[in-house]
Amino acid sequence: MAKKPLGKDKLGVQKVMRMSDYLGDACGQFSLNAISGLIGQLTYFYTDKVGVAAGAIATALLIVKILDAFTDIIMGYIVDHTAPGKEKYRPWILRMILPMAIIMILMFTVPTNVSSPVQIAYLFITNFLFSAVIYTIICVPYQAIMVVRTNSQEERAKMGTWRAAAGYVSGMIIAVMIIPITNMLGGDQKAWVIFSAVLAVISALLLFVTYKTSKEYPAMDGQDMTAEAEPEEESVPFSEALKNLFHNKYWVMALVLAICSNIFYGLSNSSGTYYCKWIYGNDNLMGILGGVGLIPTILGFVATPVLIKTLGVTKSLRVSFVIGIVGNVLRLLNPYNFVYNAVLGCFSTFVNIPMMCLLGTVTAMSIDYNDYKYGKRMVGSSQAAASFGSKVGNGVGASMIGWCLAIAAYDATATVLTPAVEQAIFTFNIYAPLAMFVIMFIIAMKFDLEKKLPGIHEELEKRKAQNK
Fold first, then answer.
1. Distance CA 380, CA 144 (A)
2. Of 282, 264, 290, 248, which Cα lies nearest the Cα of 385?
3. Which of 13, 138, 391, 403 has most Cβ atoms within 10 angstroms of its Cβ?
4. 296-318 pLDDT, tens per residue?
5. From CA 315, how far away is CA 402, in angstroms rounded?
6. Phi, psi at residue 273, to the nearest 5°?
7. What is the set of domains in the chain, with CATH numbers?
8. What backbone torsions phi and psi does residue 8 show, to the nearest 5 degrees?
9. Do the beta carbons of residue 356 and residue 164 sit within 8 Å?
10. Secondary structure in 3-state letters for 221-236
11. What does the DSSP 8-state code read for residue 284?
């Protein structure tokens, strides 16, 4: 039975994506967010379950993230210099499935009956392999697939929405279930190993689904369109590509948005656990907060497509950043009340959704602008360099928690909350996220590429027609 033909989007670009394409593609984001979500929980695991000093953890994790960011650049170079005629992206996903599952478990098998330097070395090596090597080799090609899979901004935004939904499910599983489930299993290191093992198996299976359903060229009505795919562009030396990127103001703005949003994500991944344990007095409340957070999450995924259709990509981000600013300012009025902060936290959860859905689309726009300005899209290099900023941001966010706790002389075995630790927890839960929302709003106000894209695409089509 022939499939129903796909139409064109509102800009006249041919659509190529069906529901099965969106679902298969989104499975990869579930796995990537499972990786990043577990990494976000490591500071709490290392301090409160293994007993490693907070300051040492923060410094080690930041060094990993800096090295991690440079591996993105290397991976982008490798992808862009794949021999013509060969698949650039999908094979990397398949190669990393088994290593990903193994290292995800080893992350939590930190030896306990050894010296502190040995523990630091172990967590450094496993973090480096998990984040800087395996995550990078999966993430850079996976992010690039969005750019080459379809030329429709509408479909890219929809891909971003599906990816964000799958990623959020993964993140919520960790945020809502990891503390209650590991506590139910005994609350010790073994419990965390069991949890990570189950998640590793699920993530591996979903990565395989993404590998099987991904395509590296537009496909229409189920037909193989490889012969009609755009010709391979000549690889650009990375030094030249990087120079071009930093002369593309829209890519720079997308980079700043990525850095700030990932500082926010790095903070939010484990900061709430400390807040529940010390400000509310019960870390099991993380499960309740996660459950309550499902309401704004569902509303966010329902509202985001409407916002995009009504306001467009950039204005939707601006609105979400304003809501984030207001929500965090109001938290300052009473940071101790659980119900009050849980309600306001719903606003931050809600505005997470447009960010998760649309930042990839913003980067894709800037890649189209590369083609307009330089005649080269530089997909791999653009995604790698953007990922560089994202990982540095995530590393800064995660490390900020450890540094704040170290400065406040945090003691996981203490029975009384000191004023210094209280202010440290407020810093990485309220003050820093508020600053990130303000910066992102300013950047979003200056990002005017979206309204220029129709003219840019028209010019690019004229150039292609002249070169035939």
1. 6
2. 248
3. 391
4. 888 888 888 888 888 888 999 99
5. 35
6. -65, -45
7. 24-218+230-461 (1.20.1250.20)
8. -115, 155
9. yes
10. CCECCHHHCCCCCCCC
11. T
